[in-house]
Amino acid sequence: MSKVTAYGAPSTKAFKMGTISQSHEQEP
């Protein structure tokens, strides 16, 4: 999901969705 992060605009929504998905395993 590095492509979405590079955009910046859509990174906000995708970033949270992606971070929550990965962080969910380490940080509930």
UniProtKB/TrEMBL annotation:
Domain of life: Eukaryota
Region of interest (Disordered), ranges: 1-28
Biased composition (Polar residues): 19-28
Name recorded for this polypeptide: Uncharacterized protein
